Each structure stands twice: as structure tokens, then as C-alpha cells.
């Protein structure tokens, strides 16, 4: 059976802050409607390398996307390319680096910010290039794409948590409150997404440290959450790797693929 999937990547969200601050998602966990896993991000614990890791299943030292300044298309099959080539509808409301990895590089805001082109890997895109672009607006962009184009796969990728971490650090009220804000935005949409048959994953690329940065191997930089919601997930304990998220999504979408995946995560 083929499912529709929404993948939410909350940029820069540390595991413990997700665990402690996201009351709505924790409420779903208490009622056995969601499960939280802890996973360790690949290295370096940086954004662009880990977008590529999450979306292709290839770790940075193998993908060649080893820092944030490498501006080129991905050289690997991604959830987007596999889905598009197998007749699925793809969409993303995401930072412009995602457009650069899977659609066109370099990003040209006038051309690419609003993308509608069925020949591209991300057929319907609302991309942004401001780290402070409001998460509230980004979730609205994503919901507009979802309601208008009915995508099989939708990536939602807000940036404010990471932005607050770079301005105030991991141990700050601003960083934690930004995570609380994302939890509230999610609460506006999740019920309807699930009711319409989506399987939903909420994760992060990397965590944050108290030097207002990330990139290394500190637990607070590497430990990230994975919340899963939907009836195709097993909701039982298992060991999940960041490189296996791509394969899990491909499996949910019933795509032919050769990506590694966490079998225990699915029914
Ligand atoms: Zn960052």
C-alpha cells in the first residue's frame, strides 16, 4: 500500500530540548499516538551536509556535501528524485539550500522562490533564504502547497530554532521558546494531516551547542529527535540511524529503491 508522507525537519533542534519543550507532541506520546526516538546525526553536524543525508541516505563524507558552502546539485538519488521518477507528486517548503541540492544551483530567488515545474525533482516549492523567515509563515506556505497540489511527499523545513541557537545558544530561553513555538504550529495541522492519511515524521538535521554553533561531536550537537505519527509506524523501540530515514520514507511511499532503512520503525 502506498502512503503519503510529510517529513518535518526542524532545523537545529537538539534532542533534549525537543523532549522537554514540545508539549503537544509529548501529549500525543502519552496517548500512544506518537513515538519519540533519539538518533545521532552524521558528521559534520551541519545543515547542508545533513539535508543531503536525510534526503538521500548518504552520509556527508560519502556524498561530498561536507560543509555548508558547497553549492551544487546532489549526485545521489533522493526521496524527491525517486518519487518524481515513479510518478509521485513532490513538494517542499524549505530553505533555499534544498532547492540547490535537488532542483537548480545556484539558487536564484526571482526564479526559484516559488517553483512549479513538474520536470523538476521538487515539483512544487516555496523556498526562502532568510534564516529569520518566520516558522509560522513557513508552515502556512507548506499547508498551501499541501492543499493546492496534494503532494505524495511534502518536506517542511523551518529555520527559526537554529537561528535562535546561533543568536542565543543551546541553553537559552530564546532557543527553547522557539522549539515550543514549532510545537504549537505543528498542533494546528497534525490532526488533519493524519486524518487525510499522511504518515508524519518530525526530526532535525543537527543539534546546537552553547558556543552559538554546531558542527562537531558534542552530544548536544549530535543528538536529535525523531517523532513519528501514523498507523504505518510500529511505535516500538528500535535503533534508528539518520542515514535510514530516506529509506523509511521511500518504503512508506512504496517506491522502488536501494536505500538503507530501519525495518523496525514500520509495521
Ligand atoms: Zn545552524
TrEMBL record:
Pfam families: Phosphodiest. This is Alkaline phosphatase family protein. It comes from Neptunomonas phycophila.
Amino acid at each position: 500500500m502506498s502512503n503519503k508522507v510529510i517529513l518535518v525537519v526542524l532545523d537545529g533542534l537538539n534532542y533534549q530540548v525537543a523532549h522537554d519543550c514540545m508539549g503537544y507532541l509529548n501529549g500525543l506520546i502519552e496517548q500512544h499516538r506518537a513515538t519519540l526516538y533519539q538518533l545521532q546525526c552524521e558528521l559534520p553536524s551541519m545543515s547542508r551536509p545533513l539535508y543531503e543525508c536525510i534526503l538521500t541516505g548518504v552520509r556527508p563524507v560519502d556524498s561530498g556535501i561536507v560543509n555548508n558552502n558547497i553549492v551544487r546539485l546532489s549526485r545521489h538519488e533522493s526521496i524527491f528524485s525517486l518519487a518524481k521518477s515513479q510518478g509521485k507528486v513532490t513538494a517542499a517548503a524549505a530553505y533555499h539550500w534544498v532547492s540547490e541540492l535537488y532542483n537548480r544551483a545556484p539558487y536564484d530567488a526571482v526564479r526559484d522562490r516559488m517553483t512549479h515545474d513538474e520536470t523538476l525533482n521538487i515539483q512544487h516549492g516555496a523556498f526562502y533564504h532568510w534564516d529569520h523567515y518566520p516558522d509560522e509563515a513557513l508552515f502556512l506556505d507548506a499547508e498551501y502547497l499541501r492543499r493546492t497540489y496534494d503532494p505524495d511527499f511534502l518536506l517542511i523545513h523551518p529555520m527559526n530554532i537554529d537561528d535562535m541557537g546561533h543568536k542565543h545558544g543551546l541553553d537559552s530561553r530564546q532557543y527553547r521558546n522557539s522549539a515550543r513555538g514549532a510545537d504549537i504550529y505543528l498542533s494546528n495541522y497534525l490532526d488533519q494531516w493524519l486524518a487525510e492519511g499522511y504518515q508524519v515524521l518530525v526530526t532535525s538535521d543537527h543539534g546546537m551547542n552553547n558556543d552559538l554553533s554546531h558542527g562537531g561531536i558534542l552530544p548536544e550537537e549530535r543528538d536529535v529527535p525523531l517523532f513519528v505519527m501514523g498507523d504505518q509506524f510500529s511505535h516500538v523501540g528500535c535503533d534508528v540511524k539518520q542515514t535510514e530515514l530516506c529509506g523509511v520514507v521511500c518504503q512508506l511511499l512504496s517506491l522502488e529503491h536501494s536505500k538503507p532503512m530501519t525495518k523496525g520503525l514500520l509495521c
